[in-house]
Write a structure and sequence with these properties.
four-stranded antiparallel beta sheet; 123 residues; 50% strand; globular; mainly beta; seven-stranded mixed beta sheet
Length: 123
């Protein structure tokens, strides 16, 4: 049974930092492209960042470029998202997801998804 469990969310002031983690089990982690998604209340879910199987290639949505960094530790089956210079508009539930085939894509293209961790940024 595949599981992906996010952690590291919380309440932080604007300008602060958080580091999210996602630990996956039940799969061969380095066979999977990994992604971070987020959904704010009343808004559609959006892709934040994704990373290739080796970790050599990454991509980010424009609103987080230069502030967020995605990384992975394949030996630990863990995905990370370092979030710096946080803004109130970053407030959302953050989800990690894994897909076996293809490259970064939409939420529906990922086979396995976590339950999310809440990030709240106060102004």
């Amino acid at each position: 049974q595949v599981q992906a469990v996010e952690s590291g969310g919380g309440l932080v002031q604007a300008g602060g930092s958080l580091r999210l983690s996602c630990t996956a089990s039940g799969l061969t982690f380095d066979d999977y492209v990994m992604g971070w998604f987020r959904q704010a209340p009343g808004k559609e879910r959006e892709g934040v960042s994704c990373i290739s199987r080796s970790g050599k290639m990454t991509s980010y949505t424009d609103s987080v470029k230069g502030r967020f960094t995605i990384s992975r530790a394949n030996a630990k089956n863990t995905l990370y998202l370092q979030m710096n210079s946080l803004k109130p508009e970053d407030t959302a539930m953050y989800y990690c997801a894994a897909r076996r085939f293809g490259a970064c894509g939409s939420w529906d293209e990922y086979s396995y998804r976590g339950q999310g961790t809440q990030v709240t940024v106060s102004s």
